[in-house]
Amino acid sequence: GELKNAARQAWSATLGRVSILDVGEGWTDREAEDLRSTFYSSLYRHNTFPRFLTEADPATGAPVHYSAFDASGRTYPGPAATDEGFWDAFRTTYPALSLLYPDLLGTIIAGWLNAYKEAGWLPNWSSPGARNSMVGSYADVIVADAIVKGVRGFNTTLAYEAIRKDAFVTGPNDGRPSHRFSRCGRHRRRGAPAAH
CB neighbours of 42 closer than 8 A, spacing ≥ 6? Predict the structure, then answer.
């Protein structure tokens, strides 16, 4: 009843940020409806990741999160965003978020910056915690794009610090989960090799 209606209203508001007025010429009515259905179904799935591991502090109502990087299991202020691998999402999902849902993207990036403060690096495959399963650091691309586009909701000074560290500091190669292992050779060469 009530919960179902609240969920329906929330999804209607989320998906309603985009209105398809015309799918173009050459489509039958049935094909045009199929195109709309495919678009909104994809937009729904687009909005299911990343997930937040954020709760309200019982005393203050402020957002808090359990840190996957704290062995003591403590909670920290602010959001935590998880379940994102970035591999293709950095050039699909996140540019769309910056245009359609910039407020949500700002909260997601604030969650990544919390991971940076707690673990020392921006996540590259937050699940939650760090995983040695992704080359490069596509979060840098997303964060830089959000800064350039003026997305709000996160500390841009801290964000710049994080992406600069990702660019110039080689991570540990001590067997612990860290995605910085792929950078060692690049830093010794002072850049990426040229294509011939």
Answer: none
